[in-house]
Design goal:
single chain; 145 residues; 0% strand
C-alpha cells in the first residue's frame, strides 16, 4: 500500500536528513573546548559541570541555524547579510542561553557581571552559528547538501 506523503512532511524529512549530515561535522571535544574558552573566566561563579550539557545543546542549535542559512551565502549574499536574516532566531538562542545560566548556573558570587555573561553567551552562540554557516556553505559548494 502506497503512503501519501504531504509536501510539508517531505520538507521536514529533507531538513532532518540535512541536519543529520551537518551534525557529523560537529565535534563534542570542540564544543567543550569552546565552553572552556568562553566561560572559563566565570569558573568562580558558575559551576561548569552544571551548565555544560546546556551549552552543548545551544552550540548544536546555533550550528544548525548557521548551516540552515548557509544556502543564502552560497547564492551570493555576504555572511553579514545572511546573519541579519536570522538575527531574531540567533537572539532567541542567546536569550535562552543567558536565562539558562541564570536559572541553572548555580551562581554563588555577589559580584556577578550579568553583562559579561550575556556577552560571553553572544560570542558563544555567534561563533557556533558562524561555524555552521561556513561548513554548510562548503557543503553547498561541494554539492553535498
Amino acid at each position: 500500500m502506497n503512503e501519501i506523503i504531504s509536501l510539508k512532511q517531505k520538507r521536514h524529512q529533507k531538513e532532518l536528513k540535512y541536519e543529520k549530515r551537518m551534525l557529523r561535522e560537529l565535534s563534542l571535544a570542540e564544543i567543550k573546548a569552546e565552553i572552556d574558552t568562553c566561560f572559563g573566566g566565570f569558573s568562580n561563579i558558575i559551576k561548569k559541570p552544571v551548565i555544560e550539557d546546556g551549552c552543548v545543546d545551544f552550540a548544536i542549535e546555533s550550528f544548525l541555524l548557521g548551516a540552515k542559512y548557509s544556502k543564502f551565502g552560497y547564492l551570493g549574499e555576504s555572511m553579514n547579510q545572511v546573519n541579519k536574516r536570522c538575527q531574531l532566531d540567533e537572539r532567541q538562542i542567546i536569550d535562552e542561553m543567558f536565562d539558562y545560566f541564570l536559572n541553572f548556573g548555580k551562581m554563588n558570587d555577589q559580584n556577578i557581571s550579568f553583562d559579561e555573561i550575556y556577552i560571553a553567551c553572544e560570542y558563544f552562540v555567534h561563533n557556533w552559528w558562524k561555524q555552521g554557516y561556513l561548513k554548510g556553505e562548503k557543503r553547498y559548494k561541494l554539492r553535498l547538501h
